[in-house]
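Help! Submission page says 'invalid entity' but I think these are all valid:
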Amino acid sequence: MTTSSTGELPLRNEHDIVLGRQSVRHMAQQQGFSLVDQTKMVTAASELARNTVIYGGGGTLKWAMLQEGSRRGLRLTFEDHGPGIPNLELALTDGWSSGSGLGLGLTGSRRLVNEFEIASTVGVGTRVIITRWK
Amino acid sequence: MERIPILRMGEFLLVTIQVDMHDQLALRLQDDLTRAIEKNGAKGVLIDISALEMVDSFMGRMIADISGMARILDAQTVLVGMQPAVAITLVELGLSLPGVATALNVERGMTWLRRTLNASGDDDHIINR
Amino acid sequence: MASKGDLTSALRARRQDILTSWLRQLEQASASAKGRLSAAEVNNQATEFLTLLASTAQTQDVSGFGSEGWQPVRAFLEDLSRQRVMAGFSSDETATFIFSLKRPVFEALKQEVGTDAEKLSNEMWSATELLDKLGLHTIKAFQSSREEVIGRQQMELLELSTPVVKLWDGILALPMIGTLDSARTQIVMESLLQKIVETESQIAIIDITGVPTVDTLVAQHLLKTVTAIRLMGADCIISGVRPQIAQTIVHLGVDLQGVTTKANLADALALALKRSGISFTKH
């Protein structure tokens, strides 16, 4: 698998969330995603970017455009050094019905992408990696 | 300060969202809209999102909140023009906006509002005479 | 880098000989190609390729096929493969284009290198390595193109098998036939939603008469479609709900959330017309 292009963006405030969304849209278009798949990726990115800014106290978005054979993909990593998520299991299963913005963002985003990975340690930070393939 | 314009169309208010809103702008819209409903005695609010290519949970909740607040102020909200890709994504995200009325476009939205308000039987609300 | 008596010089100095010999090989091989490409086309391609190969070998390292400098050659092979896929060739028929170049190149090397056995065997090895890489790249590109074509055809089949029908002004119907899998339902959903916007239809009837079984997954997909339609501002009616399916839905605990269901398409159409304020009178 090759990575044709990588980069990173800061996620400090809500303006960065908007910039992040626009960049992700652009990259998804470049990788040839269908309109629906673009929208899903951009929406997932918006959710996770917001989590990073609001709950993570700010962080970074690292992106990578992927190529595996004839398959093209996009991988986004949202990282912060914030408080971490205490009940990760709970947030991932129950989050959305509990109404907390954080939970909805996580469980919802998971359904919008092909691969979803999350690691979080209380007091250290959180990292979420999402991947979508064409 | 950046604001989303609110147009008055008779007894209704029309908001056309065309920019990729950051959170502050969205909250400001909520504020402006509730004030405008009260100031104009508006009975209906149309939110046109036909130009929006993405609606996330924040936006979704904001729209649901606007609808709720409007109802308390005795106004009915209609969300119009959601794009297919956005609808599919919102549903997958887990949001169905149950309390929010929807219409295909502004014209249908207004027709629906007039019909709904007529049916309420209140003389003050009859628009077509 | 280019010293006399090696692969690079052979390609340059004896290009014409290689070409003549190669064309002869290709002609023999194409006896089985059933005339899908004219001899003239093959000749042109071979000539063009050999020129490209020879000139690239002059400035690039022959053992560095993956590098930037070899991109034009790779691109040529990719175009060639794509064309062969479209013309219905098999992968080995396509690879023959490259592999039949081996013998002519070896012959040219023998002439170019002369009697130095060690040098000759080194150069032949370089040539083999290069041609093998060219051949493999061709096959890889062929498979990629083939997969693309198949993928596209599958999409088209999918669209054809679930057409959205306009029953009346503002009323669309989607007759679902056969088993519903995740991928299919998604495509179908997108196509229906798109049609609703295009035709500004107020009502969409999803008919599942032709769907043999409804399990949780299918029921959930249906529900998602219905919700999406509502979010867009249109209404949805599900028709063709047989008693068994109704039981399944209830047993599965799927809440259809107030979606209107009808036993058959005719009833659904009657309801849709009524909701649209259309009525017919018999004379």
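Support: the input was valid. A stray whitespace character was the problem, and the output above is from the cleaned input. Strands of chain A lie at 2-11, 59-68, 71-80, 115-121, 125-133.
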